[in-house]
Amino acid sequence: xxxxxxxxxxxxxxxxxxxxxxxxxxxxxxxxxxxxxxxxxxxxxxxxxxxxxxxxxxxxxxxxxxxxxxxx
Length: 72
Prior knowledge:
Elements: H1 2-11, H2 15-36, E1 39-49, E2 57-65
Antiparallel strand pairs: 1-2
């Protein structure tokens, strides 16, 4: 949580803003994976902030995998 707080302070976002953005992002990715019948792998990346985009903050990358496959 300390790392989230530092990032939030630098960008003027609260930890709640970051967690809310992650919730939206992850829900969309899970829906995408389920619709495709695939597994989901994701990891942190650099934060990309674009006011007006929904969510305005993205700091994660993902890939869809064949069911049961190991992520690279």
